Amino acid sequence: MNTAKPNETIYPRLVLERRRKRNEKNWYIFYTSPRAEKIVYNDLLAREYDAFLPLTRTLKVWKNRQKKLIESPLFPGYIFVNTKMSEIYDISRLPKIATYIKCGQNPSVISPNDINTIKKMLLLEEDVSVETTFYEGEQVKIIHGPLTGHEGILVEQKGKTRFGIRLKEINHTVFINVCTNILQKNK
Question: pTM for the complete prediction?
Answer without folding.
Answer: 0.72
